[in-house]
Write a structure and sequence with these properties.
CATH architecture of the largest domain: 3-Layer(aba) Sandwich
CATH superfamily of the largest domain: Type I PLP-dependent aspartate aminotransferase-like (Major domain)
CATH topology of the largest domain: Aspartate Aminotransferase, domain 2
Structural class: alpha/beta
Mean pLDDT: 89
Number of strands: 15
Helix content: 40-55%
Low-confidence stretches: 1-47
Distance between the termini: 72 Å
CATH class of the largest domain: Alpha Beta
Strand content: 5-15%
Number of domains: 2
């Protein structure tokens, strides 16, 4: 029996008429690998099918070192349902999914709702394992080292609560980690009595060695683990993960990387990086389904990490590698399957090409902001080698409390703004952004002082 006939048997039980499209035609559409027409207007789907096909064929025609021109990236943008005129620069927080990923979620959700029997849902075991293999290839790991969890926070807490510590043990954490990789460590330490040591990277630095030094200096004979963000979500600083993991391994220290800001934005190879644990969310740079994530556990560490949640099926997965960390109860199977579709979307464009595009846009953004705006202070290193896609800065004389609303309501820009002494404006470009949008964002930031002066005067 052909693979296509197998798929026809597996995806069934749709109504005879789906928004005016006869069932036979509908099945032909979704089984052909194109997006279907059940959720968005048919015109949008027709246009998008052509855009995705053009994107894939154009990507195939590019040489390995060719990042692609602006026309190519406009094709990529057409595969996202971002509201016309809206400039989304908040990839560090939440990204839209491209149409093929959306449609995979919709398609399989309809399938489950049409027939939620255990017989119909059996196929999701195979789809899940297909996703696991795809994710493993995507991050440079083996399938047995990959658990499919709900987000970075869950993966982080699985490390924090799954390892065994003694009161004399110490854990080193970066002070710029996300709360799920810092506060959670504090809570665990308070309960079990081990020590958490925070380290701070220097405010001024010019090399990887200077970034690494505080971690080197903090390691003692009691240090069990080092936890750090691959790229900081509050400064945009990129730590030299491969060098840091090698240093930790030489000293007998485990390494735990929060990859929320690199999973999907960087061509990550975890085997080369050499970490013991890595976590990432599908809803950020990966542009995947919401409430899905990846948890990598190095093969040698699986046996020594206890599962945080033990659910139905646990006895059957004890010997199946990282699967023992995902007996989390009822899951949304459609989202797990759609993570595999997201990997395919990235691979069609090219992981290296995506990273290069993000770095290009981030560098262009920093360069143009610096040229246009007197009094700008960057929290993010200007050097692409010491940063990623997260760009954080402050503008003298600009009230951050008003900035977020001004940028969104007056300039149609979605971004993030942090208060406090280390606060600033955070802009994070992705492949659905264009150079024109970067220029418009710079214009908007350049106008903030005059806009806030007018507001204060009631003009």
């Amino acid at each position: 029996m052909s693979a296509n006939n197998n798929q026809k048997q597996k995806i069934r039980n749709f109504p005879e008429d789906v928004r005016g499209l006869r069932r036979r035609q509908f099945m032909k559409t979704i089984l052909g690998g194109a997006v279907a027409v059940t959720v968005l207007p048919s015109g949008v789907f027709s246009e998008n099918r052509g855009s995705y096909k053009s994107l894939k064929s154009t990507a195939i025609g590019l040489s390995a070192g060719d990042v692609g021109g602006e026309g190519f990236w406009k094709l990529a943008k057409e595969n996202f349902a971002i509201k016309k005129g809206l400039i989304m620069l908040n990839a560090a927080n939440l990204c839209p999914s491209p149409y093929p990923v959306q449609q995979r979620v919709f398609e399989l959700t309809r399938d489950i709702d049409a027939d939620p029997s255990s017989h119909n849902r059996k196929k999701f075991a195979d789809l899940r394992e297909g996703t696991r293999r795809a994710l493993a290839g995507y991050v440079g790991a083996s399938p047995e080292e990959i658990a499919i969890v709900r987000n970075t926070s869950e993966g982080n807490n699985m490390v924090i609560n799954g390892l065994t510590f003694k009161p004399c043990d110490e854990v080193i954490i970066w002070d710029e980690n996300h709360p799920t990789a810092n506060i959670a460590w504090d809570v665990r330490a308070e309960r079990y009595g081990f020590k958490v040591r925070r380290v701070k990277t220097p405010e001024v630095f010019e090399s990887d060695e200077e970034l690494m030094r505080p971690f080197f200096d903090a390691v003692t004979e009691r240090t069990r683990l080092m936890c750090f963000s691959h790229v900081s979500n509050i400064s945009g600083i990129a730590l030299p993960a491969e060098k840091m993991c090698a240093m930790a391994r030489e000293r007998g220290v485990f390494s735990h990387i929060d990859g929320a800001q690199t999973f999907g934005s960087h061509a990550v190879n975890l085997s080369a990086i050499g970490c013991d644990f890595y976590t990432g969310s599908a809803h950020k740079w990966f542009c995947g389904p919401k409430e899905a994530g990846i948890f990598y556990v190095r093969k040698e560490r699986i046996a020594g990490l206890w599962p945080t949640i033990v659910g139905v099926g646990y006895p059957g997965v004890i010997d199946k590698g990282a699967q023992k960390f995902e007996t989390l109860g009822q899951r949304d199977d459609s989202r797990i399957a759609a993570m595999g579709t997201t990997v395919e979307f990235h691979n069609k464009i090219g992981k290296d090409r995506i990273e290069a595009r993000i770095r290009f846009l981030a560098t262009a953004l920093k360069t143009r902001l610096k040229e246009r705006i007197p009094g700008i202070t960057f929290r993010t290193p200007l050097s692409p080698e010491l940063s990623g896609g997260v760009v954080v800065f402050d503008v003298a004389g600009v009230d951050l409390n008003k900035t977020l609303d001004i940028l969104y309501h007056e300039h149609n820009i979605g971004c993030a703004v942090f208060g406090g002494d280390s606060g600033g404006i955070r802009l994070c470009p992705h492949i659905y952004n264009t150079v024109e949008e970067i220029d418009r964002a710079v214009d908007a930031v350049a106008s903030l002082r005059s806009a806030q002066t007018s507001m204060s005067l009631g003009i």
